[in-house]
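Bug #77: duplicate submission created two jobs. Keeping one. Sequence:
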Amino acid sequence: MAELLRLLLRVSEKAANVARVCRQEAPLFQLLVQEKTGEDKNKKFVQDFKTLADVVIQEVIRHDVGAQFPEIVDFIQGEESNKFENGLGESVTVTVRDTEEETAALLATVLDGDLAAAALLARAIHRDPAAVDADGPNVPLRASELGIWIDPIDATSQYIEGREEAPEEGRLSPSGLHCALVLIGVYLRSTGQPVMGVINQPFNRKDPASGRWQGKLFWGVSCGDVNACSVTRAKSGPVERRAPSVVLSSSEKRAVKDALSSLCGPEKLTYASGAGYKILCVIQGSADAYVLSEGSTFKWDSCAPHALLRALGGGVADLTESLKSASEATVELTYHRPNARGKGADRWANCGGLVAYGDSSQLSAILEALRGKL
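Kept job's structure:
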């Protein structure tokens, strides 16, 4: 597990470099933000260059992890399909090739011969990042017991829009590049329990001298009696004696907002973009919980940050199932089985909504406030 953690940290940084390059290099940035019209509008590669950026990141992670841990490769899943249709109607499967030149040639077929953009992407894909290390724990698990969920760029809309405001220290950012994350979660195939997570925040701070963005890494391992995390949270007093602070989506149901406002006070309800980022806010302690009543998140959104929360003594509960539970036991999300009634991506939706929490006593208070309201 320690070896796998080091690898995931390294590939997450390579993925973050790809995300930054797509915004920093003019030929790629123009494709990222450009909205074609007229005859060009039907060219999927232009309309969905943001999806190509996602796919490239996903395939980088799949390639590098599969090379070192072939036992996992068939259990690496992500948000995106790696099949594209170019402007000539040709179907192209995006993969990472053995050399930078081969990868550039493949990407050029997706990008209708845009050699400059293809070369820039291929260079970022094959560039080794600076050494990334972590003093992670050794846990006696075999690679053949594990599966991986990847969200290559969580909060893609914020990544595309690209607002650059940074939050104050200890405060969450409601929107902007700060919310865009690379998420890599590891789970047990037998139980679906998340056991390791890596979160890379590619746009953590902007260097005033170079004008280039620098990232930040977060990781956690939770397996049996072993819990380790790169994040340490300061205690702010007995949690049962204070009202929790809760982060929500701005589109959350009015009934949920009203119920939580009564519990917490309206000043303790905040709003932010990106499911992964909202759970990161709970991990870092800038919010006590994240509540979502809709089934609009997926396994790739929650697996990585769930593992970090578990390492810190918290978790991510299925909201609907926890509210239905006759006992006070909560029902945690798992990651190994699709929803029997779902189709396509919805097979992997967190269809019961979720509550990400740092402390079980505050989770109980939140569930009690929401009972009978949904």
